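Risk register update: the risk of archive-format incompatibility is retired. Evidence:
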Amino acid sequence: MKYLSINTAIAACGLALVTGCVVQPGGIYVRPPVVAVAPPPPVVVAPAPVVTVGIPDTYVWDGVEYVGYVGGVPYYLGPGNVWIVCDGPRVARFNVWIGAHPDWRTRWAVRNDRYRNDRNGRYVPRREERRDDHR
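Archived output:
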């Protein structure tokens, strides 16, 4: 069997091509595998959260925590007795509570004399205590 049949030669060439071998005169050479490295994903920097400072003049206990409004925006009393803008679940819970207590502003609201410090610990006066002579 000095010579291979044509079918065996075709099969050997097909196998060599599928496996990545290179058939050249003088022998069969195996190419090293090509490794493709994907570029790293782009770095996305989220914008800094907007910090709004608000101290409600009145607040109410909604069964879970204290909630008050500043300019139509609900705030809750968070850690360190700092007022924080309510997130979606807190607003939803408070709206359910308001539905059961429609007179909450006149009957249940407490004048905020106790929790008047901002997140830096500075006292924030009530609106009627603020002076407007800086004009």
